[in-house]
Structure formats: structure tokens, C-alpha cells
């Protein structure tokens, strides 16, 4: 900037001036350079611009770099940040925040495999006014969850689901079932069919064989009643549900509930009391006659 306003003018509003006639351009051959930018210090005196390049690769399994750019020299220099060994492909610099004399640099895409599941975590690094690393947040990533997971799949087989979409639904189920270990499956319309429970799935664990006999029921769409039946009948010990497992219900439907004597407020509180985590996946509606 060519001129600096006095602190007495800027302080009440924390404002700043922008030179739009003679802008300063920083160029760096780093992938994603400019994804995040933050002003650090008083730029018109001795301040810097901090710029993130979260896609830039470095050492093995290392992505993301952060640069300090000097408006006076119009040059940028990488800021060295000590990363822990498990910070694999963390996209460092995707998020930057500066306040007073501290800078927070974050990389939120650390992928971590826990059993058959993949979790995304991240690290942040707190730097002082001299850009020295003060601490890492968190110190270490959380341990992998040790609880098992029981997943109930509830699929809409009513007449509002096009046969082609029902086939795609079965393909989707097959892919999910190859990645986890404990499933039960119920199909619903105005009728309800339990295709297999947790015990039966653990004995087979062959998704293609288990799904081969699943045919679309057709009819009306009693989604709320189906949820109630899953809560009361499938998440039970005699069907193989485990008391210490995380309970997950995945409902796959086009959202068209028809003719159901129950409403969602009738059944959702019961699922919540049972500690069941619920997800809904939508399918396209090429509506046929019920």
C-alpha cells in the first residue's frame, strides 16, 4: 500500500485500506497457491501476507504448504512447519486465521483407517508473531473407536420406486455390505419383509447371494410404520443385535410416504430413545402407479 492510515483512525473499526490502482501481485509455482490468504501484522509497516497452497506436494504423503509474502519485496517464502508422522496428506494451509500476534494454520484432511472405516481428521498449528511453532492442536489424533456397529438397512420397495432405481438400490446395498460386518435388511411398501437379520448375515456375509432373492414389493409407502418395526423387531438380541454396538438405521426412499397410519413424530422419538443413529438416502422418483 502507498499510504497508511493512523492507528487512531483504524482501531475503532479494525478497518484497512486497499490499493486498487497499483495492486501487488504475488506469484508462486505451488498448486493451490492463494486458496487461503490472511494479513498478519500491520502490513503497511512490517506486516506480511500469509498464503496457503493446500494442494502442493512435498515429502512422501505430504500435501499443503504455507508461504509468507512480503509486500515490500513482492516475494514469498515457505514457512517451515513440523508435522507429526500421521499427518498424511493433510492439505496444510486450507484454513488460515490470524489474530493479534498469533497465527493458526490448519490442515483438515488427515485420512485415518479404523478397521474397515475411513475417518477424516486434522491438525492445526499455532505460530507466534515470528512464525515460530508454539503448539499443535490436538497433540495427537483420537484413538480409533472400539465399539462395533450394527447397521439396519430399510429400503423402499413401494410402487413409487421405478424398477430401474430399485435395481440400482440393490447394487448400492451390495457395495455397502462389502465394507462393514453386521447388517440386517428390511423392505417395505404397505407390506413388510425381513430379508435377513444380523445373525443370518454373520453366517453368510455374501451380499450378492443374500440380495439375489430380494424382489420389489410394490404398493403404498408406509415409511413411518417401517421405521417403528425396525426399532422394535430388528434391533433385538434374538435377531443378533449387540447391546454394546453403535446402532445405525439407513433408510433408502424417494420420500413419498403414502397411506401410512403413522407419522414420523409417532416413531422418531422411539428411535432416539433406543439410541439409533438415523440416515436417509434419497432415490430419484420416476413415479409409477401404486
TrEMBL record:
Gene3D superfamilies: Integrin alpha, N-terminal, von Willebrand factor, type A domain. It comes from the Eukaryota. InterPro entries: ECM_Assembly_Org, Int_alpha_beta-p, Integrin_alpha_N, VWF_A, vWFA_dom_sf. It holds the Pfam family VWA. Residues 150-290 form the VWFA domain. FG-GAP repeats lie at residues 19-78. This is VWFA domain-containing protein. It comes from Terrapene triunguis. The lineage of its organism: Eukaryota, Metazoa, Chordata, Craniata, Vertebrata.
Amino acid at each position: 500500500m502507498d499510504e497508511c492510515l493512523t492507528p487512531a483512525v483504524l482501531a475503532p473499526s479494525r478497518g484497512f485500506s486497499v490499493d486498487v490502482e497499483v495492486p501487488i501481485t504475488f506469484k508462486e509455482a505451488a498448486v493451490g497457491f492463494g486458496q487461503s490468504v490472511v494479513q498478519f501484522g500491520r502490513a503497511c509497516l512490517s506486516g506480511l501476507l500469509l498464503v496457503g497452497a493446500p494442494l502442493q506436494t512435498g515429502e512422501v504423503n505430504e500435501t499443503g504448504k504455507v508461504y509468507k509474502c512480503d509486500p515490500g519485496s513482492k516475494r514469498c517464502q515457505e514457512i517451515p512447519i513440523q508435522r507429526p508422522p500421521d499427518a498424511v496428506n493433510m492439505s496444510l494451509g486450507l484454513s488460515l486465521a490470524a489474530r493479534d500476534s498469533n497465527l493458526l494454520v490448519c490442515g483438515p484432511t488427515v485420512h485415518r483407517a479404523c478397521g474397515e472405516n475411513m475417518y477424516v481428521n486434522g491438525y492445526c498449528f499455532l505460530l507466534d508473531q515470528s512464525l515460530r511453532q508454539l503448539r499443535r492442536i490436538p497433540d495427537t489424533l483420537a484413538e480409533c473407536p472400539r465399539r462395533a456397529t450394527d447397521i439396519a438397512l430399510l429400503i423402499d420397495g413401494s410402487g413409487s420406486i421405478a424398477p430401474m432405481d430399485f435395481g440400482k438400490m440393490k447394487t448400492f446395498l451390495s457395495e455397502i455390505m462389502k465394507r462393514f460386518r453386521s447388517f440386517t435388511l428390511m423392505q417395505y411398501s404397505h407390506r413388510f419383509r425381513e430379508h435377513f437379520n444380523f445373525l443370518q448375515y454373520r453366517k453368510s456375509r455374501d451380499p450378492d447371494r443374500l440380495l439375489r432373492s430380494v424382489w420389489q414389493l410394490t404398493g403404498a409407502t408406509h415409511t413411518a410404520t417401517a421405521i417403528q418395526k425396525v426399532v422394535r423387531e430388528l434391533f433385538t438380541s434374538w435377531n443378533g443385535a449387540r447391546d454394546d454396538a453403535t446402532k445405525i438405521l439407513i433408510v433408502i426412499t424417494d420420500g413419498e410416504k403414502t397411506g401410512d397410519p403413522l407419522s414420523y413424530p409417532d416413531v422418531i422419538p422411539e428411535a432416539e430413545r433406543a439410541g439409533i443413529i438415523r440416515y436417509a438416502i434419497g432415490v430419484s422418483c420416476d413415479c409409477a402407479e401404486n
